Amino acid sequence: MAVFATTDYSVVYNGVDLSPYVKSVELSVEGADLDTTGMGTTNNSFHTRIIGLKDWKVSLELMNDFAAGQVDATLMPDVISGTARTVTIKPTSSAVGATNPRYFGSVLVTSGSPISGGVGDLAMNKISLVAAGALTRATT
Asked: What local confidence, expressed as pLDDT, does residue 2 receive?
Protein backbone atom coordinates (compact mmCIF):
# COMPACT_ATOMS: atom_id res chain seq x y z
CA MET A 1 0.00 0.00 0.00
CA ALA A 2 1.29 3.44 -0.85
CA VAL A 3 -0.16 6.85 -0.04
CA PHE A 4 -3.94 6.57 0.04
CA ALA A 5 -7.17 8.43 0.74
CA THR A 6 -8.85 7.49 4.01
CA THR A 7 -12.00 5.80 2.80
CA ASP A 8 -11.89 2.33 4.34
CA TYR A 9 -10.60 2.41 7.94
CA SER A 10 -11.63 -0.62 9.95
CA VAL A 11 -12.74 -0.01 13.54
CA VAL A 12 -13.95 -2.95 15.64
CA TYR A 13 -14.97 -2.42 19.27
CA ASN A 14 -15.68 -5.43 21.47
CA GLY A 15 -16.28 -7.56 18.37
CA VAL A 16 -18.71 -5.07 16.78
CA ASP A 17 -17.64 -3.64 13.42
CA LEU A 18 -18.33 0.10 13.70
CA SER A 19 -16.59 0.93 10.40
CA PRO A 20 -19.77 1.79 8.46
CA TYR A 21 -20.53 4.52 11.05
CA VAL A 22 -17.04 6.06 11.28
CA LYS A 23 -16.73 9.63 10.00
CA SER A 24 -13.27 10.08 11.54
CA VAL A 25 -10.83 8.14 13.67
CA GLU A 26 -7.57 9.14 15.31
CA LEU A 27 -5.17 6.81 17.09
CA SER A 28 -2.60 8.76 19.12
CA VAL A 29 0.46 7.25 20.76
CA GLU A 30 2.93 9.14 22.93
CA GLY A 31 5.68 8.53 25.44
CA ALA A 32 6.70 10.62 28.41
CA ASP A 33 9.78 12.72 27.67
CA LEU A 34 12.22 12.16 30.55
CA ASP A 35 15.23 14.46 30.78
CA THR A 36 18.40 12.52 31.67
CA THR A 37 20.81 15.46 31.39
CA GLY A 38 23.34 15.45 34.20
CA MET A 39 26.27 17.58 35.27
CA GLY A 40 29.63 16.56 33.85
CA THR A 41 28.18 14.27 31.18
CA THR A 42 30.00 13.90 27.88
CA ASN A 43 27.45 15.97 26.01
CA ASN A 44 26.58 18.62 28.61
CA SER A 45 25.68 21.38 26.13
CA PHE A 46 22.56 19.52 25.01
CA HIS A 47 19.75 17.78 26.82
CA THR A 48 19.64 14.00 26.74
CA ARG A 49 16.36 12.14 27.05
CA ILE A 50 14.72 8.76 27.24
CA ILE A 51 11.13 7.71 26.71
CA GLY A 52 9.26 6.88 29.89
CA LEU A 53 5.76 5.46 30.20
CA LYS A 54 3.76 5.37 26.99
CA ASP A 55 0.09 6.14 26.52
CA TRP A 56 -2.40 5.87 23.70
CA LYS A 57 -5.95 6.92 22.94
CA VAL A 58 -8.55 6.78 20.21
CA SER A 59 -10.95 9.52 19.16
CA LEU A 60 -13.95 8.49 17.09
CA GLU A 61 -16.62 10.53 15.38
CA LEU A 62 -19.48 8.20 14.52
CA MET A 63 -22.84 8.56 12.84
CA ASN A 64 -25.19 7.51 15.61
CA ASP A 65 -27.50 4.52 15.42
CA PHE A 66 -29.72 3.55 18.36
CA ALA A 67 -30.63 0.06 17.06
CA ALA A 68 -29.68 -2.99 19.12
CA GLY A 69 -26.03 -3.93 18.65
CA GLN A 70 -25.11 -0.69 16.91
CA VAL A 71 -23.27 2.51 17.95
CA ASP A 72 -25.25 3.65 20.99
CA ALA A 73 -26.00 0.17 22.38
CA THR A 74 -22.37 -0.90 21.87
CA LEU A 75 -20.54 2.08 23.34
CA MET A 76 -22.70 4.03 25.78
CA PRO A 77 -23.22 1.23 28.36
CA ASP A 78 -19.43 1.06 28.69
CA VAL A 79 -19.21 4.80 29.37
CA ILE A 80 -21.67 4.28 32.22
CA SER A 81 -20.16 1.04 33.58
CA GLY A 82 -16.47 1.78 33.02
CA THR A 83 -15.94 -1.66 31.49
CA ALA A 84 -12.69 -2.20 29.57
CA ARG A 85 -13.06 -3.66 26.07
CA THR A 86 -10.82 -4.37 23.08
CA VAL A 87 -10.58 -2.04 20.11
CA THR A 88 -8.94 -2.96 16.80
CA ILE A 89 -8.08 -0.42 14.11
CA LYS A 90 -6.68 -1.06 10.61
CA PRO A 91 -5.94 1.34 7.73
CA THR A 92 -8.27 -0.69 5.48
CA SER A 93 -10.79 -3.49 5.84
CA SER A 94 -8.42 -5.80 3.90
CA ALA A 95 -6.55 -8.65 5.55
CA VAL A 96 -3.84 -7.78 8.05
CA GLY A 97 -0.38 -7.67 6.48
CA ALA A 98 2.84 -5.70 6.22
CA THR A 99 1.01 -2.86 4.45
CA ASN A 100 -2.18 -3.10 6.52
CA PRO A 101 -1.14 -3.36 10.18
CA ARG A 102 -3.62 -4.03 12.95
CA TYR A 103 -3.43 -1.89 16.10
CA PHE A 104 -5.30 -3.28 19.08
CA GLY A 105 -5.57 -3.18 22.83
CA SER A 106 -7.82 -2.79 25.82
CA VAL A 107 -9.57 0.57 26.24
CA LEU A 108 -12.01 2.42 28.44
CA VAL A 109 -14.70 4.63 26.93
CA THR A 110 -14.22 7.85 28.87
CA SER A 111 -16.76 10.02 27.08
CA GLY A 112 -19.49 9.95 24.52
CA SER A 113 -22.12 12.35 23.23
CA PRO A 114 -25.13 10.21 22.32
CA ILE A 115 -27.44 13.20 21.86
CA SER A 116 -25.82 15.96 19.82
CA GLY A 117 -26.76 18.18 16.91
CA GLY A 118 -29.03 20.86 15.61
CA VAL A 119 -32.13 20.76 13.47
CA GLY A 120 -31.42 18.92 10.23
CA ASP A 121 -27.95 17.75 11.33
CA LEU A 122 -26.72 14.20 11.01
CA ALA A 123 -26.97 12.44 14.39
CA MET A 124 -23.38 12.03 15.58
CA ASN A 125 -21.61 10.61 18.63
CA LYS A 126 -18.08 11.69 19.56
CA ILE A 127 -16.35 8.95 21.53
CA SER A 128 -13.09 9.05 23.50
CA LEU A 129 -11.25 5.82 24.28
CA VAL A 130 -8.20 5.70 26.55
CA ALA A 131 -5.70 2.93 27.07
CA ALA A 132 -6.47 0.32 29.71
CA GLY A 133 -3.30 -1.58 28.78
CA ALA A 134 -0.64 -1.91 26.09
CA LEU A 135 -1.15 -1.11 22.42
CA THR A 136 -0.06 -3.86 20.02
CA ARG A 137 0.84 -3.50 16.36
CA ALA A 138 0.59 -6.70 14.35
CA THR A 139 1.18 -7.50 10.68
CA THR A 140 0.14 -11.15 10.77
From this structure: 79
pLDDT, one tens digit per residue, over 1-14 is: 578 899 999 999 99
Q: In CATH, what number does 10-138 get?
A: 2.30.110
Residue 43: count other Cβ atoms within 10 Å of its Cβ. Answer: 8
**Cβ neighbours for 133, distance < 8 A, ≥ 6 positions apart:** 84, 105, 106
Give Cα separations from 45 to 34, 35, 40 (angstroms). Answer: 17, 13, 10
Which sequence spans correspond to the domains of the chain? 10-138
Q: What is the three-state SS of 76-127?
A: HHHHHHCCCEEEEEECCCCCCECCECEEEEEEEEEECCCCCCCCCCCCEEEE
Q: Give the SS3 label for residue 74.
A: helix
CA distance linking residue 85 with residue 106, whole number of Å: 5
